[in-house]
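Hi all, long-time lurker, first post. I run a small reading group and we've been trying to get comfortable going from sequence to structure in the token notation. Rather than ask abstract questions, I figured I'd post a concrete chain and ask someone more experienced to write out its structure so we can walk through it together at our next meeting. Sequence below, copied exactly:
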Amino acid sequence: LEEAKRNEKGILLIQETWRNQARERLNIGNWKLYGTGCTTRPRGNGTAILIHNTIKVESCHHIDPRITAIRIPYGKQHLFIVSAYAPVHQGNKNAFKTERFYAKLTTTTMEARNKGDVVIIGGDMNAHIKQASAPELVGKWASNKEGGHGDDLIAFMTEQRMAAINTFKQTQWRDRYTWSRGASRSMIDFFLCPEYMLRWQH
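-- Answer (accepted) --
Happy to help. Here is the structure in token form:
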């Protein structure tokens, strides 16, 4: 909410809401929140999208506690905007959860594209990726290491031809960190867009 107050208009993608409502729609001042929580295990789950009331939302999709999406008009097309929260890497412990997450994300992406929508995905992917893994899809301002579920994320990006657009923007490392704990810092949050959109900023 503090972030929303600093922005007059826009769309905010939120992860790890810890909400227990499976389908939630709240009016918060000039904003509306569309959330998907977990009724049985809200802790460490939940995604949401907070959008200003001046932006028309044609539909909201409560796909999974880790995947919430909205569809908004975009010229003659539509934007299908997804808030995603990938499982945390814990060896083989979360392998099934990760496989299920990317299966749902792939299905969601393909269904939206089949309607002619432009898919934008943003969120906490709990993965480290570097440019060498997919030079055409990952910029040189990404992490300098791989880890977490990086292979799963790269596989999804490659299959769907989606680029991590925030890794193509030059910034100081302190501005690139999206996660920190003590002295540890890393980039695990990404905005994924169709590969062709890279030409719009370069």
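A couple of things your group might point at:
The longest strand covers residues 77-85.
The chain has five helices and 14 strands.
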